[in-house]
Amino acid sequence: MQDWSPFQSVIDERLSDREIRLWMKRDDLLGGPASGNKIRKLKYQLRQAKKLNVRTLVTFGGAYSNHLFAVAGLGQALGLDTVGYVRSSSIPKNKTTNQLRKWGMKLIPLDRELYRKKEDISFLRDLQEQHLNSYLIPEGGSSQLAMPGIQEMVTEIREQCPTQIDYFVCPFGTGATMAGIAAELRYDEKVLGCMVLKGLEPKEMIRRFLPAESLAKTCHFVEAHYGGFAKCPAEVQSFIQTFYDVHGICLDPLYTGKMMKHLFELIDLGRFPRGSVIVAIHTGGLQGTAGYNERFGINLPIPKEILNLYEEN
Predict the structure, then answer these.
(1) Residue 234 has what pLDDT?
(2) Which of 19, 226, 261, 276 is surrounded by the most beta carbons within 10 Å?
């Protein structure tokens, strides 16, 4: 796994008209098929698991989960057994679950009522009794141990970016990525979280990781779900395809595609001061695009590495 992911300038006339410089941190190119911010969030949790000499990683996610994908792939590489509790009454057969099984992950369905208990102490205690010598990883890898890996990403960006940064922009799901960025901000820098799920309470979620004063000064939130988490309307699909055609960068339909579309909408509306320097975080998640294409009969762009992986199955 390469140490640093690339840092790429995005050139677009909509940006130059407003003298805005946009850079993208390409964590989609970090670590192979199981790529993106999940690797950063899991880095120190996996170190802790190895330190405790556990045999099994136990975690949670949906049927197309990038998090389950990363845990399964990294677990196999480390020689650890993996168990994934899937938010479903039964385990669907799709490209993601096929690959999880290929990597040796044991998949167990949890109906939505039980899945809501995934953070209850008594429920987690019962799971640990069922899976002896195991290490529990929260959904999305969001824990305090996720923070240092994200903070390291910010350190990388400072080395790679040739100028002072005004805004970091990232998708907002469970909050750990945004919190890790916010913890490393300096001067007048700000971080914008693009919420890709409906009904989130982002400030409450961020307070699990950051003191209230940091939240108030640096963290800003915008809704960018475009109808809901699993929704990718035609306007977002069109943006993803055009962005790929122009810039050669694949975006996923649930996180980075929505983030980048909303970012350009905000730029078009003049919400960023002229001359701003913006760094957008590409959090990966591109394996999920294959499942989305399969599920809805569309053809969003997918990196060759992931296509080749699925063609082997």
Answers:
(1) 96
(2) 261
* pTM over the 0.85 mark: yes
What pLDDT, on a 0 to 100 scale, did the predictor assign at position 106? 98
In the numeric block, the tokens 């923070």 are attached to 147
Which amino acid, 93? K
CATH of domain 7-34+145-309: 3.40.50.1100
- Find out whether 100 and 84 touch, Cβ atoms under 8 Å: yes
d(CA 308, CA 300): 16
Could you tell me which of 100, 51, 93 has the C-alpha nearest to residue 71?
100
- d(C-alpha 71, C-alpha 81), whole Å: 10
Q: Check if the beta carbon of residue 177 is closer than 8 Å to that of residue 75.
A: no
List the chain domain ranges: 7-34+145-309, 37-141
Q: What is the pLDDT of residue 216?
A: 63
7-34+145-309 and 37-141: same fold?
A: yes
Q: What share of the chain is helix, strand, coil (3-state, %, to 5)?
A: 45, 20, 35
Q: What residue type is assigned to position 87 of the chain?
A: R
Place of tokens 């290929």: 102
Q: How far apart are CA 75 and CA 174, in angstroms?
A: 22
The length of the chain is 313
Residues of the chain under the 50 pLDDT cut: 1-2
pLDDT, one tens digit per residue, over 35-61 is 889 999 999 999 999 999 999 999 999
> What are the tokens at 87?
């938010």
- Mapping DSSP to helix (H, G, I), strand (E, B) and coil, where does residue 159 land? helix
pLDDT digits (tens, 9 = 90+) for 166-176: 999 999 999 99
CATH class of 37-141: alpha beta
